[in-house]
Amino acid sequence: MSQDNQTLKQRREKAESLEAAGTNLYSNNFKPANTVQELLPKGEFLEAQETEPRTNSYSVAGRIMAMRKFGKAAFCQLSDQTGHIQIYLKKDKLGDQAFEAFKKWDIGDIVGIIGTLFKTKVGELSIAATETTLISKSLRPLPEKWHGLTDVETRYRQRYVDLIVTPESRETFKKRVEIIKLIREYLSSKDFMEVETPMMQPVPGGATAKPFKTHHNALDMELYLRIAPELYLKRLLVGGFERVFEINRNFRNEGLSTRHNPEFTMLEFYQAYATYEDLIDLTEEMISSICQKVNGTMNISYQGTEVNLSPPWKRLSMDQALIEVAGIDEAILHDDQKVMALAKEKGIQLDKLAGSGKAKTELFELLVEEKLIDPTFITSYPTEVSPLARRNDEDPTVTDRFELFITGRELANAFSELNDPRDQLQRFEKQIADRGDDEEIHPELDSDYIRALEYGMPSAAGEGIGIDRLVMLLTDAPSIRDVILFPHLKPEN
Predict the structure, then answer these.
(1) Strand, helix or coil at 473?
(2) CA-based R_g, the chain, Å
(3) I want to staple 211 with a disulfide (CB 3.0 to 4.6 A). Which of 123, 204, 255, 365 is the partner?
(4) pTM for the predicted model, two decimal places
(5) What's the pLDDT tens digit per position in 342-354?
(6) CATH of 165-325+368-482, one of 3.40.50.2000, 3.30.930.10, 3.10.420.10, 3.40.50.970
(7) Burial of 138 (0-12, 13-18, 19+ CB in 10 A)
(8) pLDDT digits over 240-279, tens only?
């Protein structure tokens, strides 16, 4: 029998023994009156070896994370959501029956403790237990080094164990909650209204991506898990809601990587009577202020690279970035044929219907993107690759759009919205006509969205920010799987 199987056998035998002696292995009648965090300040005034009066009794519940037994006494470390504290258990205080039951407890068990506070000889705050309750018997042992799982796949696959034993992982997800809370507070302070739009859509739109498909039996129709909420949020602008946002899941049937999970969280927000330049200012202020509140500074380190999030952030057009960062001659960028030739020279495979706008975008992704470490707004994206963005009034070959890059990764995408239904219809039709075998472009036109625009949508700007990537940045996480509680993985077998 392997060591793991032997340990499982021993734990099950202990559980059976406790149950035979009348112990409820999974009781539901212990209600802690205190958290560990609440008790810590109360012990500040105790001296070493000093004990509080017995009338000051406290009750806590949590998981045993360490245990030392000494015959008629023992020390345990108990951990709850707020922290950890030492528990002192003594036979003459608990009584024979309770102490005998305690001897069958294991690291990992969830227990309830009632007792008084005292400090040990070395000044460690502890609870002297007067009553104990087994709340949940752990039948599987925790990893031996309970201060953290080192096997990455086990951390992702068994997140419940990772959260028990890896303090850094718990802190990452607490910080994630705080970041999302601060986003909501910031946008609410700017009079944005939080809304919810459909997760299942008859026509996937708002982005170029391969969707997940499902079937609704009662309606006998195909539906798609949304790839973006954009077209529904803009319908709300038509309806008169002038500032809206949504934080929710998007689904894209794509590969897995350190930056991609098929199910991910996006923030999208839309503001009537605004331009993409207004959203540049808003984004800069929102992200930098959240970084300051979460990390106490705007100078952070991401995977060993120093990043300064202090405003103002750099702003470059795509052409400027290709000239200044990639070193491309400006004359080439003004000649469509030369741009196409340069892309081919760099090994970029372009579809036969692709134009110079697509070539520039591919050159940018290849030669510039990963070099943008400090926050940089890239503007003036080619119209060819921006089917939902408003054309620039002075140069219709580009759009009023920006993408935000930090540490070489796209974090946000925004533009002044196209609200001319005639232009939008033409772009949709061209995109579908040029689709070829591209599964990321849906073959069906969203005619209801065109109908909505025909009622009149106000001038507006909208933006999407990848929440997972933002959390990665602000928590120094190397992979998107480190900031998603339950990332998608291949089956174990």
Answers:
(1) helix
(2) 29
(3) 204
(4) 0.92
(5) 999 999 999 888 9
(6) 3.30.930.10
(7) middle
(8) 999 999 999 999 998 888 888 999 999 999 999 999 999 9
